[in-house]
Amino acid sequence: MSTTLPFADALITDPLYPRLKEHLLESTGLTYYADKNEDLARRIGRRLSTIGARDCASYLEILRDPLRGPSELAALIEEVTIGETYFFRHREQFDALRDLVLPDLIARNRESRRMRIWSAGCADGPEPYSLAILLKRELAHKLSGWEVTILGTDINQRSLVRAREGKFEAWALRSTSEDLKRDCFRSEGKLWSLAPEYKARVSFQYHNLVEHSFPSLLNNLFCFDLIVCRNVMIYFRSELMQRMIRQFHDCLAPGAWLLVGPSEPNMTQFSSFHIVNAPGVTLYQKESQSTAATGEAPFTIAPVEPYSPAISPGVTVTARTVSEGVTPTLEEVRRHGDQGAWESAVRCCEQLLKNDNLNSTSHFYHAMVLEQMGRHEEAEKSLGRAIYLDRQSVLAHYYLGLFLQSRGNGRQAERSFENALELLRFRDDAEAFADADGITAAELKKLATMHIEILRERV
Prior knowledge:
The protein is an alpha/beta fold and about 450 residues long.
């Protein structure tokens, strides 16, 4: 007997069902559902029943509505995404991280004493929290005094709310030893709550790998030492997977690592990486001299052509530093940031502010650089100065919201996102922000709205 709801059967025969399906797949990249009409229709049907939509036409009208659309798409995504995961999934990969990848990164970053990790497609948090447990339990003695951050991103807003809570059912700990459960978790009835010391380094934010740009200065998605994206790309079509692999490559610092799911390796798609084999695991490392090795242009934050200085005919350009008295530019700040050279980036910012302390954009970039250096209080002050000097700066308000959200200041973060939305009311939806990866006003509205909804769900 079929388990398909009668409403789902009707959806499949609805003339606009193909258009609705196309809209969803384009928004999420989930080609997993391309040949699974019955399963997809059942999930969509549940959503239509919940909100009382009559048919595909009325539901498409809601999804395309600028006010209701973003939140309804988020709710639909919660219905269709498959976010089942558990702690220390694929133990061989965590062994490789412990024995090979993390020691290599510790050696590479010994001078800066910083490490940035991105868990892309983190579901409700077991993966980034497993990384945090591994770092604290196995490598704490080598990382004492380091600034280590782990960022988890996902397309499912409700999953992110659960991830921030850090509470899990026993099934999520099925691959976790009793000793580790006892040391890292607290039993709360049917749930297990992760101890605060393992949550301290981990933050979460909404991000759609298909629709939202990365690398992204605005969303703090650049210059990572390790990116973990497991069992995510298998749901995407081949050309989209290839695009994402290129983007992940651009998000990594020279010598950094990418870890994907065991069912995802395809050597031809990872040709820009150095392939490293460990017991039961295939790893991908970006060449230390990535530009020379791959022949690709380095990532620039600006959405236009890659940064290059203006060159007059017959003039030879040589590298110069701020200390030689050369006035830096914001492009140089971005270039140093691309390379993870934060000391050089902050010196450029300081020189720019010395020359013009009333430039809001310079304070904005200074704040982002300081944040990467772990100088959080100074970063917040610089953002405050940027807003004081230009209260119409949408990006400063939005980034302050991200900053406060990552610090757990939910109410203040919500107010900052609301300020950004209020300013965006007066911007054309097609307007692109050159200092934010070319993101449009319409896209920024969606992101700010989603962050507000996530924050309100936590109250």
